């Protein structure tokens, strides 16, 4: 296990970088995914169509393909930002499709009577959604969206694997290829790092679920 | 339109219809402008040039047969890997589910621990880990087998969880009736609980197949020597010097395969619900809730 104890700095730095990817990915995909969900249930057919097209497209493409297209294809358009930004953007574009579907399924758990009551006292679509349906739906949405976010934390390893630099995966790559450490203990170190991330995220989610759950 | 959406707004009157139309026009224009901007940019940069697309889409191009032969080879590896992983995960997943349900609290703990660990690891890490571990113990038989084993390790746990949710959602009377007619616990699991649970969870199970198919592409990043569709995309884009175009076409192939799987799922589901099956079937929404988000 000398590969872990001798290089604690590198592992810690990698852990923080992976955490950073996960946090930015969570913020971005929650925001964009919610917007997409609103598109998909809005009365405007063009927005509904766009939402459906986007979700179908991104949900059925492997993340690796999305990331490679971002990292190598977008620079061909003359847009050049850091690999890190490409990686996080690709992760957000991909994950938001799943967040959108989770939010939509949460909205469908709100009893019809709620929306009907809101409409019958004269609220508009925006008011019905914003004041009545969404506050209840967001609670119902916590478990599925939480699962999506945990899956996204795992997917952030893919972002590292294609070479963002500085995260847990590249710590592993550096130690094994450049410094000649044995692969098995090194990857065990990386696996533990990711397990800490995902299991603590799962724990937080369970806590949060217990607080937000409502009896119906 | 789906039911929940229909109640969010009234049947539009003339005024609301005008507003919706205006919204449609504005949104449509914005999307159109964005699309035009992207296309113009692509054209400016020479990304729409025929020489970049021809090897992929023009049958008369000299590279076309070779390119599609390679894509076909990659497709075969991808489908083989996914198929083997699916079969193995299904079998092991069902066994795991019944084990977890029938073991006592103490005997169950180590099993649940291992399952949680496997579920918490990123698949890409599991793939690399499996490959390294197999090499370390001298049981390495090529990258494809490593991929299949890793995908099985991860997905059999997910499938076990899906099945368990299905079994636990069955009414208690099912087990009681089974025991009452003299079946053993194991027989009740095999002949009463699992068949109903699997039928109820079929949509979730099939959408897990989509995940397995997509996850095969991860192997091309971490395993050397595998020749799956993802790796072929990598090699072709290097040889043809057209990253954007190759990944676009390969991405489309994945989308078509996954949409086909999704259609099969819908078909199966309609057949099942149309045949007047037992009331124990979990409603689709329930299935979505129980397994929600696993298929990311």
From TrEMBL, chain A:
Protein name: Amino acid ABC transporter permease
InterPro entries recorded: AA_ABC_transptr_permease_3TM, ArtM/GltK/GlnP/TcyL/YhdX-like, MetI-like, MetI-like_sf
SUPFAM superfamilies: MetI-like
Main subcellular location of this protein, as a coarse class: membrane
Residue span, ABC transmembrane type-1 domain: 15-205
The family this protein is said to belong to: Belongs to the binding-protein-dependent transport system permease family. HisMQ subfamily.
Cellular localization per UniProt: Cell membrane
PROSITE patterns: ABC_TM1
Keyword annotations: Amino-acid transport, Cell membrane, Membrane, Transmembrane, Transmembrane helix, Transport
Membrane topology, from the record: Multi-pass membrane protein
Pfam families: BPD_transp_1 (PF00528)
Transmembrane segments: 20-42, 63-86, 182-208
Automatic annotation (TrEMBL), chain B:
Entry superkingdom: Bacteria
InterPro entries, per the entry: AA_ABC_transptr_permease_3TM (IPR010065), ArtM/GltK/GlnP/TcyL/YhdX-like (IPR043429), MetI-like (IPR000515), MetI-like_sf (IPR035906)
Gene3D superfamilies for the chain: MetI-like
Keywords: Cell membrane, Membrane, Transmembrane, Transmembrane helix, Transport
UniProt-annotated location(s): Cell membrane
Pfam families according to UniProt: BPD_transp_1 (PF00528)
Topology in membrane: Multi-pass membrane protein
Membrane-traversing stretches: 21-43, 77-99, 111-130, 142-162, 200-224, 244-261
Principal localisation: membrane
Domain ABC transmembrane type-1: 75-265
Annotated family: Belongs to the binding-protein-dependent transport system permease family.
Record protein name field: Amino acid ABC transporter permease
Organism: Kineococcus halophytocola
